[in-house]
Design brief:
Strands 1-2-3-4-6-5 form a six-stranded antiparallel beta sheet, with helices on one face. Helix 2 packs antiparallel against helix 3. By secondary structure, the protein is α+β, with helices and mostly antiparallel strands.
Amino acid sequence: MSGRTVRGGESAQFARVLAGLRRARVRPEIRLTEVPAPGRIAPHAAALTADVVSRGEEELASGRFVLLHDPSAPEPWGGVWRAVTFARAELEPEFASDPLLGEVGWSWLTDALDDAGLDYSHEAGTVTRVVSQSFAGLADRPPTVELEVRASWTPRDIVDADHLIAWSHLLCTIAGLPPLPEGVVALPGPRR
C-alpha cells in the first residue's frame, strides 16, 4: 500500500492504520489493489482500488478508497482523517427512470457506515446515474445504466480498517450481491 509519512508520533499512528488496511477482511468477490495515493491533499495518504467480480470473473462493480490524514485538521474535514471514495456499477436498464435512485444510492453508503456502528461526520457526496443509448451503427446495443457514488466523510473512530470494510459493503450492494448472512465472516479475497 502506498503511503507517505513524516517522523514523529503521527507517523506511528498512520502506520498502524495503514497496517489495518492491509489486513482488511473483505468478501471473497472483492479484489483489492494497492495504488499510489494522492500526493498533495494531505501529509499522509493511502489508496486502494477494488473490483467486485462474479465467479465467472465478470466485473460487477469497481471503486477507489482513499484515506487521508492531516494532523492540522483542515476545517472542511472537521477532523484529522478523511475517507474519499468512489463506487461504480452497471445497473439494469429499468433503473434509468427511477426518480429515487440517487437517494437510494446515498442511503446504501450511509446504511453501510451506520450498520458497521461507525462514528463519522462531515459526509458529502454525489450519486450520478449515467444512461447510455446507442444510435446509427451502434443501434443494436441495448441501453446501459451506470450508478456512481462519490462520497467523503470524516471518520471519528479509526480502528483498523472498519471504514474500508463498510465502504466495501456499499460496493457489494451496488454490484447486486446479497448481504452475507448474520454471523458469517468473509474470508480474505485474492489480492493483486
